Structures are given as structure tokens and as C-alpha cells.
Amino acid sequence: xxxxxxxxxxxxxxxxxxxxxxxxxxxxxxxxxxxxxxxxxxxxxxxxxxxxxxxxxxxxxxxxxxxxxxxxxxxxxxxxxxxxxxxxxxxxxxxxxxxxxxxxxxxxxxxxxxxxxxxxxxxxxxxxxxxxxxxxxxxxxxxxxxxxxxxxxxxxxxxxxxxxxxxxxxxxxxxxxxxxxxxxxxxxxxxxxxxxxxxxxxxxxxxxxxxxxxxxxxxxxxxxxxxxxxxxxxxxxxxxxxxxxxxxxxxxxxxxxxxxxxxxxxxxxxxxxxxxxxxxxxxxxxxxxxxxxxxxxxxxxxxxxxxxxxxxxxxxxxxxxxxxxxxxxxxxxxxxxxxxxxxxxxxxxxxxxxxxxxxxxxxxxxxxxxxxxxxxxxxxxxxxxxxxxxxxxxxxxxxxxxxxxxxxxxxxxxxxxxxxxxxxxxxxxxxxxxxxxxxxxxxxxxxxxxxxxxxxxxxxxxxxxxxxxxxxxxxxxxxxxxxxxxxxxxxxxxxxxxxxxxxxxxxxxxxxxxxxxxxxxxxxxxxxxxxxxxxxxxxxxxxxxxxxxxxxxxxxxxxxxxxxxxxxxxxxxxxxxxxxxxxxxxxxxxxxxxxxxxxxxxxxxxxxxxxxxxxxxxxxxxxxxxxxxxxxxxxxxxxxxxxxxxxxxxxxxxxxxxxxxxxxxxxxxxxxxxxxxxxxxxxxxxxxxxxxxxxxxxxxxxxxxxxxxxxxxxxxxxxxxxxxxxxxxxxxxxxxxxxxxxxxxxxxxxxxxxxxxxxxxxxxxxxxxxxxxxxxxxxx
Length: 780
Hints:
By secondary structure, the protein is α/β, with parallel strands linked by helices. The protein has 20 helices and 25 strands.
């Protein structure tokens, strides 16, 4: 055999498939690198210790700030209440104590969205200005000082109130900032973002071309603090969070939108304002309930929120705020506690590059006969199916949890009190899905092909995400680009025994990017939506194990492994459910309503919860039906009910002020009020089948006519007013009598009608869960 023949044989010989003989050192190094990434992520998520009251004057101190929470959050303070007036007086005194000149603005505001009932109220906003040295722009710090009628609101938004006051004190203790800082305390947020609407209507906010808004909220009673929403053009604004930042990720806005919530910043953002919204999100079981109390408010969460707000305020107060208006959208995410911020278009460029590198690796591997395209496609298809399975198991897990613990139905927008083990169980099941995919794929697919399959899913999904949901695409793009580069290196490298280490770097990148989001989603979305973090964890686990060589198992062995892992997840979940015992500190959440029909004097107990509970079952039976004909503001389609004793409660009253005929209808002027001052809201509904509403005014504020409510029972138009009595002007079509259904809404249940008091082992879910309704029909 001559030399030329030997060379040709060497060039055409099929090399050993890459990754078949990864050295133990390569596998160990890969595992250590991934573990280091996990450790770094977990360490960066630790909440800070609360600073004591004697902390440096220029620092944020939860020890000092908690005194403000104690002062304002001793009892519920809904809009129009005496408790809210007392809280406002405290704020005025505190601001004057800082040398500021607080001002109040009282006006009626309405939130009137298409195809939704209008909500109006008389609200009082409070604002004060910390002047800057140059007056070049204004940083507007916003929180609401009213609370949900069903709870004292120590965190929501006592934390916001305390943060604004302590931030103002810290700023005043140091040298003047370049820009002005405005403090805005809004009223009526809980009733429908009325205070922010009033602030915009009154022109309280400075020029949007030279200002930025930081809004403070709460979705729990403890940390972590999260920056969860921002304006569309946010590159410069988000960059202010680089120091001592709250958890922030551009994915958050997408998640927040799926939760269906709004804050004052929603109004400001819709009005074209630049800024960000912050909230503490831990302990969501107590959110918007009577348990959002001083006793349950975590100073560490307040410290986390305060650190972020004070740092961001100082950064923005020293910046050119005119540059924050049209600076373009940004992608941002934390890396070991530091925020990475870059223009959003970079994700699309990186996604296309990842796809190009992947195609190169596939083409080169196929030419060298080290990669089978069919195997990569099979592995990628299997992974896509596995991710879908993980999401489906998450949905099924929640339904299974409800079978075991039907009382969890009250936790649709947050986690139960002790959700740690169920969360771990869900995580184990998600990881199990990825491991099973890996073991099944390994029976026919080589490690390099498995890595390419994962990369293909990440790269293709990354391009789609960069186009459709760019804020979330970084979770796919950077691991996909790293995986494509690692796979190309494995194809090109002469020594393929280090394939596991090649893949360890993109796997570590996936851990750094995806794990913080998955860990945050568990408390934010709760068990009801645990499918979301399970999908992310399944994809993350697949990325981590893809570069490792797995033994070729028999099909039965793979099935047994899957069963063991899933059973382990279910066991953890079941143990967590059993451990979540009911007591005064961890009560069952329920909904109970005392409804009085003032026309007939008939009273009923109502509950939308189907789960058996001794206290509720004492008052209501098992049969359920709709009650929206009698109480149109009720949201649930069906309520269990039982007869209740008639007692005197706050009832609605209507005075006709005028009735003016028109060519094709008439104008009816009414005054709505309550027979007692403890009613927090009045609602009115019109029988639109007889007299369609053309337009309306509430306290002089125009609201839409037409149909804005379910007209199944005739009540096709409705409006709610908070904060006292209200004048209503209705323009209706036709000359037939106008039939109205009016209601008065009061927090709590009338004790005089109860022969069994509510035990301390149950509590109302988010308001309006424990309430009294009185309704009557009037015709004019």
C-alpha cells in the first residue's frame, strides 16, 4: 500500500461518533461547572437583612421604615373611609417633618374601559417635591395609600408608603440631587386605579419628556422585590437598576400580562410615561386579605424594595431624563445579582447567528458522517413533545391538588401558605420529563446528536421568540447560541472525548438565565399555574443533561425510571399538602356573602366555593345557582346559598333630582347614597332591554353608554362609585320607565345575623370575598 492510498483511506474512514468516550474528567468538570452556576444563582437571590434604625442617615433602613407601616396599616383604609383620612393626615405630618410642602388634590376620577363597567370615585391624591440642584427633570415616586377594604394593607401598599417616606428622608440627608424628586401618594388604586387617573386628569405629573415614574406595589408580604413592568422604551430607565437591583427580567412584563393585573403604572404607561413598576412578591397567600397585616409584614422584603428604589432614584436623579423617553426597548436579566441590559434587537441578531452556526455544525457533521440528521430531528421532536408534556403535567398536577385539597381553590392568583414541598415536587416531575426524554433518545441517538437536538429546539424557538415575544427570547437565544458553538466545536475537535465539557458552558449559561426565572415563577404564578415554571425547568434540565453520555437502557428500565421520578415528585407534593395544616396563622381561604334584597326583605348567605368547609356549610347548602339577577356585581357563575336572618345593614338609596324629556328619550338625574356610612361602594345597573343607555355622567365625569355588563338578566349597563354619595346623569333612549338595580357593598358580615362566628382557622380570600350586599330595584 503506498502513501497516497493510506492518506485517502484516512480521509474517507468514518470516525468514532463524538462523545462516545467522554473522559470521566470531562464529565466531572462539566458537572462542577453547572453546579457552580446553580450555586451562584441561589446565592444571588438571598434577601438582605433589614438595616436597623440607627443605620447611616443616607442609607435605607427597614428599621426606620417599619414605623411608617405601623402608623398607617393598623386597619383597612378603603377610599372614602375615616381610616384613610387618618393615614393622609399622618403622611402630611411626616412630609412636613422632612421639610417638604405637601399638597392635596381631590377630584372625581373614572376608569371607563370598552366593554367593562365604569368605576368612579372621589379620591384625594397627595404630592410633595424634593427640589433638585438643576431642576433638569423629575423622578416621580408613586405608591397608593388606600388599602383593599378587606385588609389593612401592611405590604399593599404600606411598604410603598414606607419606602417613599424613608427614601425621601435618605435623599434629604445627603447632598441635593441634580433632578427634582416628586413623591405622589395616590388614592383609590384598589378601587380601579382611580388615583393615578385623577393625577393625570389634574396634570399633577411633570412634563413626560423630562420625567420618569417609579411605581411601588405589592403582591405579597415579603421579598423578593421585583421590577415587573416597564415602559416600552426602557433601555435608559432599566439601566438605573444596575446597582443594588431588585429582581428584574424583561420576561416579567409578559408574565405580568398573563396574570391579568393592573397597577397605577398601567395608567401612567398608557399615557406615554416612561418608568418602571416594583413589588414584593413573596407570601402571596396573604395578599389582599386580612392577613396582609403588620404582624406578617417582612422587614427583609421592605429592605429589598427600599434598596432598589433608593439606588434607582439616585441614579435617575443624576441622569439626563430626556434621554429615557425614546431610548428604545431593552432586553434585561440578572447575572449573579448584576443586571445585564442591551438593545432588544440584539436578541434577533444572536438568534439568527445561533441558527446559522447550528446549520453549519449539522452540515459539517453530516459530511463527516458523525451526525445523522434524522437522529437530530427525532431528538428535537422528542424534546419539543417532552416540554409540552411537562406543561400538561403541570396542569394535571393542579387539578390533582384540588382533588386532595379543594380549599386551595382560593389560591388561584398566588401560592398557598406552605408551598415549598409541592413546588419542589413539581420541579422534580419537570426534571423527570427531561431525564426520560434523554434516556429514550440515548437508546438511538449519540451524545453529540442529542446536544444538537437541544440546540435545534433552542435556536428555532429563539428566532420565533425574538420576533413574537422579544422580551422573553433571551432565555432561548443565548443557550442556543452557546449550544450551537459547543456542537460545532465538538464536530471540529479531533479529540471528541471532551464533548461533555464542550456542552457544559452553554448548559451553565442556561442555568444562569433560566433558573432565576423558574424560581421566581413558582411564588408568582402559584400552584394554579405551576405549568409555566415546569416548562422552563424541563427545557433547562434537557440542556444540562444533553452533553452527558447516558447508558443505553432497556425500554422497561426507562419506564421504571420515569415512574420512580414522577412518584418521587408526587410524594413530595403530597407530603407538602399534608404538612400544610390549617391553623390561625395558616387559615383556609373562603368566600362568604350576606345578601339582602331590600325589595322583599329576604336575606341569603352565598358562597361560590364548592369545597366543603364546616363554617361555610353551616350557612349554605350544596345546591348552587346564579345570583347575578339579584346582585349583578357578583362575578362567579354559581353560588351555594342558604336562608339568612334579616338584619339592618347599609342599604342603597336613590333620589330623583330631575327628569328631562328629549326628542328620542330623556335625561334622568339621580343621587346615589347609602343609609349607613360603612358602605364602601355603590353600584347601579340599568335594564337596557327596556331603556338603552346612550351616555352617562358620574359626578360630572362622562362614561360610556351601550352594553358594558352581562345582559342575561336585563342589567346591560352598570357603574360603581366609591368614596361616598354620587350624582348620576343617564341619557336613555325611548320614553319607557327606567328600571334600575342599585346595590350597597360593605366589607365583612353582619354579626347580628350569625349564630356561628367565623373561626380563626378560616379567612377571606382576596376582596370582595367576605362582604355584605344590599340591593333594591327602583323605577322612574
